[in-house]
Design a protein that fits this description.
10-stranded mixed sheet; 514 residues; 36 strands
Length: 514
């Protein structure tokens, strides 16, 4: 009986040891009698040091820095203890620290930030410098204004402590394209030529910038000028009465059988180049079975529309291809006018353009144009009178028409010293109206009003370096407008029939001085 009791006691001790070992995660049950020891004990690693990261740092007033506390233990292990340490700052007037270790810089100075746990601590020195400039914002933001316009810009600086300051007077201002727009030391921007520039302000190594587009101004009012304001006089002719293919239409003309003054000028010029056979400006007889027709619709009271059509559908190319047939409706100072000077000239009209372009047949374009003259600086120091022409293509077939290389993006073609049989045109530029900063474009089949500030366009071409400037300014360089016009040109790449067609309808043609 006694031995049975001893066995039960032994099993009881074993059961108690098993329960205890499960609680501790360690099982040590002896199989002997009463005299054996209980379960073996276990030891936990202890915290030996704390490391702070990133350690001592230098910041500016208003900035923050997250510190991380890592506990290093006796068994060589390490773990992040940022959230359980006790954080403190030696001077809260310089920098504070949150329960999670975020340091917030308040004012210049130096402070010690500490982290403590289980009697172990670590510290980092935080040096706080005065507030620093972090960004500059420019006002106004991205802006558009016309050539000759000006705009005062301002610079606002934001600092590390969240404060702001007006830096307009102290920042260093710059324009990325000073030929397009200049900026003064005080931030006053002046638009010089159409184009884009970036205006920037820099202070303490920090730069802010904004975009600027300088556009061609469009006048809203002007004084009427020209041969026929509003296109109310059906009175037109080609230039040379004594030469073949002379054409005139004198419904509203006074005087002899063909007009000698106060008339519109039209022309047909075909080249391949240098020229096809025939007379310059009168290559075909208009409305005489040729590809070129001219149709006036309306009356003198209500105004006319003029349709200029060049149609190679059923007519063979007159010369070896490719050929170019140019047909304008023109107010020329020889028979028309008076015209304002180039620096004051504005033209407005309504255009509707259609064309057919069979595959590989060539290309077409429709344009507004101006002819002018002014004196430029001569090689001997004396002013030299030169002639100039600009055409703005408000429609052009591209890439079929083609573009001369190494020119500004809005330029299709350029020539200087360009001789024609009737004289010499010293400078010529064809612009892509759709690529101007104030676009001039007419969608096919859509009646569209066009307003051209020729003063701004000519200045734009001068700014692009394609025309020389008036030697003594516009007012003192014998500047004059010789013609304004609208028209079409067909490039015919075929030998036989089946070529392109260009069809332009012009109404309400107005010239003015602003």
């Amino acid at each position: 009986m006694g031995s049975d009791i001893r066995v039960l006691k032994a099993w009881s001790r074993c059961y108690e040891a098993l329960v205890f070992s499960l609680i501790l995660g360690v099982c040590a049950c002896g199989g002997g009698g009463e005299g054996e020891k209980g379960p073996a004990g276990s030891s936990q690693p202890t915290l030996s040091s704390i490391t702070l990261g990133p350690g001592s740092v230098t910041l500016a007033a208003g900035q923050t820095q997250q510190l991380t506390a890592t506990g290093n233990y006796s068994d060589g292990s390490a773990k992040v203890v940022t959230s359980i340490v006790t954080w403190s700052s030696s001077n809260a007037a310089v920098a504070t620290v949150s329960n999670g270790g975020l340091v917030s810089c308040v004012a210049p100075g130096q402070v010690t930030v500490s982290a403590a746990l289980s009697g172990i601590s670590a510290s980092a020195v935080i040096t706080v410098n005065p507030k620093a400039l972090t960004s500059i914002s420019i006002s106004p933001g991205t802006a558009d204004f016309p050539i000759g316009g000006s705009q005062q810009y301002s610079a606002l600086g934001t600092y590390t402590d969240g404060s702001t300051a007006n830096l307009t007077a102290t920042a260093s201002w710059a324009s990325s394209a000073p030929l397009i727009a200049t900026v003064s030391a005080s931030g006053l921007v002046n638009g010089l030529a159409s184009g884009t520039s970036t205006i920037s302000a820099t202070a303490s190594g920090v730069t802010g910038s904004t975009g600027l587009t300088v556009t061609m101004p469009i006048p809203t009012s002007w004084s009427p000028m020209g041969v026929d304001y509003g296109l109310k006089k059906q009175c037109i002719r080609t230039p040379f009465p004594g030469q073949p293919n002379f054409y005139y239409d004198d419904v509203d003309c006074p005087g002899p059988s063909y007009p000698t003054s106060g008339y519109w000028t039209t022309a047909v010029e075909t080249e391949n180049p240098p020229a096809c056979i025939g007379t310059i400006d009168q290559f075909f007889l208009i409305n005489g079975g040729s590809p070129v027709t001219e149709t006036w619709t309306g009356d003198a009271s209500n105004g006319y529309s003029v349709e200029l059509k060049t149609d190679y559908t059923n007519i063979a190319n007159p010369c070896a291809p490719p050929t170019w047939t140019w047909v304008p409706l023109m107010d020329n100072w020889v028979g028309g006018g008076p015209l304002p000077p180039p620096s004051q000239l504005v033209v407005q009209f309504t255009a509707t353009y259609n064309r057919t372009l069979p595959t590989d047949s060539g290309a077409t374009r429709a344009f507004a144009g101006v002819g002018a003259q002014w004196e430029i600086a001569g090689t001997n120091g004396q002013p030299v009178l030169k002639t100039f022409s600009v055409e703005i293509c408000f429609y052009v077939d591209e890439p079929e028409w083609g573009k001369q290389p190494n020119l500004p993006p809005d330029v299709i073609g350029y020539q200087s010293g360009y001789a024609v049989s009737s004289g010499a045109l010293d400078y010529y530029v064809a612009l892509d109206g759709g690529k101007l900063y104030a676009p001039i474009a007419v969608p096919l089949g859509t009646q569209t009003q066009i307003t051209v500030n020729w003063a701004a366009v000519l200045q734009h071409v001068i700014d692009e370096g394609l025309f020389p400037a008036p030697v003594n300014g516009w007012s003192n360089s014998n500047a004059a407008t010789s013609a304004t016009f609208a028209g079409t040109e067909v490039m015919n790449a075929l030998t036989g029939a089946g070529g392109p067609t260009a069809d332009l309808v012009v109404t309400s043609y107005e010239e003015g001085s602003f």
